[in-house]
Amino acid sequence: MLSLDRVSAGYGDFQALFGVTLEVNAGEAVAVIGPNGAGKTTLLRVISKLVEPSAGDIRLEGRSLAPVPAHEVVAHGIAHVPENRRLFPRLSVEENLRMGAFTARRQFAERLATVYGLFPRLKERSKQSAGTLSGGEQQMCAIGRALMSGPKLLLLDEPSAGLAPVVVQSIFALVRRICAQGYTVLIVEQNIRQVLKVVSRAYLLEAGRIELSGSAQELLGSREIQKAYLGI
Amino acid sequence: MIGNYPLHLAILVLLWGYIYTSWALMGRLGLVSFGHGAFMGIGAYTVVMLWNHFGLSPWFGALAALAFTAVVALVIGYPCFRFRIVGHYFALVTLALSEVARLVIVALRDQTGGSLGATPNGALREGATISLGALQFSSKEVWLVVVFAFWLGGLWVWRTVDRSMGRLALQAISEEEEAAASVGIHVTRAKLRITLVSALMTCAGGILYAQYQLYVNPDTVSGIAISLQMVFGVIAGGMFVMLGPTVGAAFTLLLAEGLRLAWGNRFPALDSTIYGLMLVLFIIYMPKGILGAALAALRKR
Amino acid sequence: MEVFDIFLLEAILNGLLLGGLLALLSLGLNLVFGVIDVVWICYAELIMCGMYAVYYLHVQYHWPLVLAMLAAIALVALLGLALHQFVIRPVLRAEPINQLLVTGGVLFFLQAAATLAFGIEFKNLGVTLPSVRLGEMSFSAARLVAFGVALAGMIALYFFLGKTYLGTAIRAISQDRAIMPLMGVSPARIFGVTSALGGALAGLAACLLVLQYDVHPAIGLSFGPIVFLICVLGGLGNMLGGFIAAFLFAQFIAVGGFVFHLEWGYVLAFVFFIVVMFWRPQGILGK
What we know:
The complex is a heterotrimer.
Chain A: E1 2-11, E2 14-24, E3 29-33, H1 40-47, E4 55-60, E5 63-64, E6 78-81, H2 93-100, H3 108-118, H4 120-124, H5 135-147, E7 153-157, H6 165-180, E8 184-189, H7 192-196, E9 201-206, E10 209-215, H8 216-221, H9 223-228
Chain B: H1 4-27, H2 36-54, H3 58-82, H4 87-107, H5 109-112, E1 130-131, E2 136-137, H6 140-165, H7 167-175, H8 177-182, H9 187-213, H10 218-221, H11 223-237, H12 244-262, H13 270-285, H14 289-300
Antiparallel strand pairs in B: 1-2
Helix pairs in contact in B: 1-6, 1-9, 1-11, 1-12, 2-3, 2-4, 2-9, 2-11, 3-9, 6-9, 11-12, 11-14, 12-13
Chain C: H1 2-36, H2 43-60, H3 65-88, H4 96-118, E1 131-134, E2 137-140, H5 141-163, H6 165-173, H7 187-212, H8 220-234, H9 239-259, H10 262-279
Antiparallel strand pairs in C: 1-2
Helix pairs in contact in C: 1-5, 1-7, 1-8, 1-9, 2-3, 2-4, 2-7, 2-8, 3-7, 5-6, 5-7, 6-7, 8-9, 8-10, 9-10
């Protein structure tokens, strides 16, 4: 569904991605793992066009995303849950979800019910200011907001970042449920052990380059990853 | 001998150049004040009113005006800098100040003549051209010398401020307050000092203006209009270069006069309309001002 | 003693009426600043344009008053949009001070252009509304109408911002501009809508002002600074703060003008402003 072909990107003089090639097939859950500063967040921002690639091609279902401006990417079916959740702090939970449905107003009521079904806790707090939610609840709300647009592809940027270990468990359980529902998911994570349990395939991104790719098992079993990242 | 009109223009260019330079002392630090009209108004009216009502020589009137200005500058400046009021807020607070000054002048209409303005009582007897005690000179040549001296003084202050604080320190204060403070630069005190100097100089400019024109009016020496005019004059010429404000004064004055000579009476306010349009274009396309842009272009070669 | 009280009450009530109008005036400015982060120094001059529009459409071209007013609101909305697209957008990424200054340039330009086009004479709409008597107090109907319409306008704005998608987006963008594209919202488009809305609010204010005051090119200078001060007093960008500050400020003007003489009311209000700035420079509800 999504394919990146030798994509490079950066900020001003600083280049963050060097010729990244990867693909995500429909219904798959794929992870991009790697250390801090590897360019994982930039990768997602390039896909959602918040950052323009300097080279390479990005295709969604065969069609190039090059001419698509950032604010039309959602309409094309890509929903991006940004790093640090980035909810609108002074809007209520329900208003945040409403913003997610900006491009899909007709389905708002129906999708709201679905999201509340997935996250009953959010329904309880629907009128509360998003800024007052706990970390885990904020993550749920952020993911819910992305789901409101009815995306084909869900981009998740480090959903476990800054959350307590117990909450992290529930977040990954959630991601597993979402994948099980048939959503195509590209998830970027530092928490390698947890995320490799949820996805089928993964890429290792280091200093802007793809160094390794394979099935989740392969990467979990790989010597390099075990030594460098799992402390084995 | 040079005719009266060119002399008059030269005096105005130097006088406004001096006043704009005073403003730019603060402006270049990011302390963009929309309130310098207050200081000018205080200078002009204090001196004229003390002279008209109490016969107090403008020399002493000037001292009173300067003292008053200093108090106002500190009273406004201190909380602003202490609470890190900058940018939009600072501009609007100072705007309030200039309006308060204008309103007080108008409200005291029994003493000040209100919106109709006031004239300092004439002190020149038959044939005399200089009255030092009353600070009135009918000879434009004398005024040229006086204003030129102040103008030079203004440039000297500019250079002294630059040297004593070091260019880097000034920039540091304007851009990175936290960093500057951590290096030991007492930010609030430095800002207050600059504000004080700028205000006092502008006050003096107001005094000179009143004594030269022999007419004061709340809208021409105080209020938002004159405050904006100062800002624009500096923007036109360039805020970060020593002679920038003067170039700005020359440019705006000559432009206004030129337009008025060409079309003035047939289309009133055409000069201002074009001026306003040019200002907008200036800020969009030449934010460094005429001199600043010229210097930057020279440096590129 | 009794007579004194009733006229004091009248002053307080007039202050209330004035407060409503000032609150409407401050709304547009706060809206634009809160969303786009730019202060329209020329805001009062936009209102002046609206006032001239009502005058010319009604007095010169004999349009029915309400139609002239609606047209004026649309016109100023367009002016607001044009201001943003042509003057503010080019300097949106420049220093904030440039944004202030460029709108200041527009202030200058609009005033001068108005003088050029319409002359300096005061123009009166020629609509006189009667006085409304309440016991021994009398109030100008124009003021009452202005208050009513202002209130209605503010309620409409409240619902727009609170209940519609576009309104929610406007509130959202002031909280996190960078992720708006992820919602499918183009920040540029929201800024345009906000500018038009700010202009429309100014246009509405113009309609209410032209009922009470004659229009002339420099009229912006008489209420412009007041509107800025109210916004800063309430916390720049905070609409509720501006609302509260408007009523406070108006009370100072009305009661101060009643106890002392008219202009001193204004002086008192301005001094009140400076005192508040001394104590709480970010404004009453500012952060």
